[in-house]
Design a protein that fits this description.
Layout lengths: L1 H8 L5 H19 L8 H33 L6 H11 L3 H15 L15 H33 L3 H32 L1
């Protein structure tokens, strides 16, 4: 009922805030994966993530909504791009928990957090308990977000939840196939060079 009210009465409501909430932990995860602490201090990483979070969040939500709308039409989806974008954006609301967990981690571990092998460090005692607690919260938020995506997508596409799941899976399958095909073409071209 909530997503139906949003798409019927106030399409786009909260899109900017939801993009910011989504983009912030994505950028921090990228910073960790790339070990950016080798090149930048943690305050620089944090401020940069805050500055670019809105743009990255908008981009991620928009691309995801575009793919889901496009593929959804193949299987009988009735949602417009704006409706699907709202469904994707609002399903990311639990990501606020992930953002708060990242802020807690930054407060506790500062720059050491932004190394790729951070989670493989041999933590003990209270540090290990804190890391496991925050990781569990992040996992729960991710599951909650995925369930919300299934429900909101089901509503705006006029699908069953199972068909909404198919709508989510198909774009990823297509991306994997496209990447495989691209790698095969590159391999084939290199064979002639």
């Amino acid at each position: 009922r909530t997503i139906r009210r949003i798409v019927d009465i106030a399409p786009g409501k909260g899109f900017l805030w939801l993009s910011l909430i989504y983009g912030f932990p994505v950028l921090l995860q990228i910073a960790q994966s790339l070990s950016l602490a080798l090149y930048f201090s943690w305050p620089v990483i944090l401020i940069t993530a805050l500055i670019f979070a809105l743009f990255i969040g908008m981009l991620g939500i928009t691309i995801t909504a575009g793919l889901l709308t496009w593929v959804g039409k193949w299987i009988g989806g009735e949602g417009s791009f704006t409706q699907v974008r709202d469904a994707v954006a609002w399903s990311n609301l639990p990501t606020i928990v992930t953002g708060i967990a990242w802020i807690a981690w930054i407060f506790l571990f500062k720059g050491s957090l932004f190394y790729e092998g951070f989670l493989h460090t041999g933590f003990m005692g209270m540090e290990k308990t804190l890391i496991m607690s925050l990781a569990t919260l992040q996992f729960a938020a991710s599951v909650w977000s995925f369930i919300l995506l299934l429900i909101t997508l089901s509503e705006v596409q006029c699908f069953s939840v199972w068909k909404a799941l198919l709508n989510i899976i198909l774009p990823f399958v297509l991306i994997v196939i496209a990447m495989w095909a691209l790698m095969w073409v590159v391999w084939w071209i290199r064979g002639f060079v």
